[in-house]
């Protein structure tokens, strides 16, 4: 463990989906489709060129719970190698590896594999299987045990929606933030008051502990209370729009035109994010496939069935919202062909 671990850089991180082989692939398996490493690399390189600050692999969007631990290292290593070969080696495009298991030992095994495969940080989901009887003390002891032995710095991933509605109190974050190997958190609960109580807590060293929102639709209000950026699913298909919004949120002195642009961006991002709120991972994969031409929009693993319910008809209902953000994305691509300024 590094004696002085650094928190992940501020900005827009993209929690990338895991791409699986399409039904037309000769290696397709309906129960456990294999990785599509070429699509994975193509998507990652596009995001790196668009200006996101880093990639989260095997988060909730990455279907971490659908991938056997022995396979995680293969994808991580392949992705790190392909990024390095294309000139996006660390620190230009760092990787954060998610864990989503309740066992301290298995979490540490995944973190060790992630470190060996080239990841710089671990994003550890709060263990919630036994949420009704888990205490704040138990959560603190669990994260302390993981952080004590992890070979890479970790962040606390608080997403009650996928962890049995387990709750982590702001006071628990304050206590865990003192651990030198716990360097931040991702908050995906949507509670701005709880986020504020962590991100503005004067007892927390905010140069050592970074607070990220998991919701791009709340980026502007979150950053007004000291949030350092977002780990946001819509950055998979509108990366430049999210990075531009982040950039405008960071500036203390905006022109009238920039203030209006920031407001318009946040409004359109918030409207567009409702696609993910409704359809989750299948919605993200559908958008990446239809808008960016990468991956199979049916390419999830069981028990997800892939593709948004309603297919073309449901997709058509979102075009009015999506087209407005796509206009902004195209405009930003012309203005910043080498990536949006951060």
From TrEMBL:
Gene3D superfamilies: Aldolase class I. It holds the Pfam family DHDPS. It comes from the Eukaryota. It comes from Purpureocillium lilacinum (Paecilomyces lilacinus). SMART domains: DHDPS. This is Dihydrodipicolinate synthase. InterPro entries: Aldolase_TIM, DapA-like.
